């Protein structure tokens, strides 16, 4: 089979183009339908009817591209992340600046009168690296980030699986916070899920390349967002770049890992990202405390 031929549509989802076919029946299948087999991918019908590789029943359980079990709702984690962001946004609108001051990404408390007496990451409040990812103040800000999460999240969650997708989102957000902490003004607060969303951009580009899809749409969209990142005022570009790099790196490990060492490679990539984030934060804390 020539996988470089013109893309056709998935036999189960006519609105989705794909360049992948079932290794048994050669029907075209999209990421939601493809099930990892001993060689290539198979469609749900071939697995269900037992016309696949002939492995034991548990070996034929549907798997995502990254090796996770196919979930009944491939948007569950995306919905939970959306709900968490929206719930915190409502709480911020109700409580006001006090909650924002307690959760915003802040390297070191600048003793500005705007803030309630508090401290920053350099003074031990490392939780701000994560809480700030779910924190928004302006309606346009959360609207843009949640639109990005809603459009990019489900395809990635479907291809990676729930746990892997959640790890991708959280580590991308933490990567954005860590780079912001490392090189930005420590007294300048930042907030929002933009770093995590840029991580999803990077992961989507990696996934599309892995699936041999036309990458021009995602590359153009990413380029437009990067232009906005560096031209609009009051944007923490460090968070965008940090999230983008971490998201692309983790996604590459998840979709390109050898099948016989897939879990090991994926776990090592996530652990490496955690260690890098911790190293940046420790170095910056020592710099600000010295």
From TrEMBL:
It is found in: Membrane. It comes from the Bacteria. One of its GO terms (molecular function) is serine-type endopeptidase activity. PANTHER family: PRESENILIN-ASSOCIATED RHOMBOID-LIKE PROTEIN, MITOCHONDRIAL (PTHR43731:SF14), RHOMBOID PROTEASE (PTHR43731). The chain crosses the membrane at residues 165-184, 190-208, 215-233, 239-257, 264-287. It comes from Streptomyces oceani. It is a multi-pass membrane protein. Belongs to the peptidase S54 family. Gene3D superfamilies: Rhomboid-like. This is Rhomboid family protein. Residues 124-255 form the Peptidase S54 rhomboid domain. GO terms for cellular component: membrane. Keywords: Hydrolase, Membrane, Transmembrane, Transmembrane helix. SUPFAM superfamilies: B-box zinc-binding domain, Rhomboid-like. Pfam families: Rhomboid (PF01694).
């Amino acid at each position: 089979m020539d996988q470089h031929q013109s893309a056709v549509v998935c036999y189960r989802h006519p609105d989705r183009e794909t360049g992948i076919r079932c290794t048994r029946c050669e029907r075209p299948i999209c990421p939601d339908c493809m099930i990892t087999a001993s060689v290539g991918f198979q469609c749900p019908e071939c697995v269900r009817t037992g016309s696949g590789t002939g492995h034991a029943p548990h070996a034929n359980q549907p798997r995502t591209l990254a090796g996770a079990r196919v979930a009944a709702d491939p948007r569950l984690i995306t919905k939970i992340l959306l709900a968490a962001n929206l719930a915190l946004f409502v709480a911020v609108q109700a409580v006001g600046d006090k909650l924002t001051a307690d959760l915003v990404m802040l390297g070191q408390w600048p003793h500005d009168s705007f803030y309630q007496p508090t401290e920053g990451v350099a003074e031990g409040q490392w939780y701000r690296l994560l809480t700030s990812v779910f924190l928004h103040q302006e309606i346009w800000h959360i609207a843009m980030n949640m639109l990005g999460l809603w459009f990019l999240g489900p395809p990635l969650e479907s291809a990676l699986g729930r746990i892997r997708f959640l790890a991708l989102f959280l580590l991308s957000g933490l990567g954005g916070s860590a780079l912001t902490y490392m090189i930005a003004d420590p007294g300048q607060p930042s907030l929002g899920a933009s770093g995590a969303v840029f991580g999803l951009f990077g992961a989507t580009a990696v996934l599309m390349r892995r699936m041999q899809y036309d990458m021009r749409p995602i590359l153009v969209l990413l380029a437009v967002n990067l232009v906005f990142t560096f031209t609009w005022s009051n944007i923490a570009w460090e968070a965008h770049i940090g999230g983008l790099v971490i998201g692309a790196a983790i996604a590459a490990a998840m979709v390109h890992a050898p099948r016989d060492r897939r879990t090991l490679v994926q776990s090592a990539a996530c652990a490496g990202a955690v260690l890098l984030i911790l190293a940046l934060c420790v170095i910056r804390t020592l710099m600000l405390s010295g």
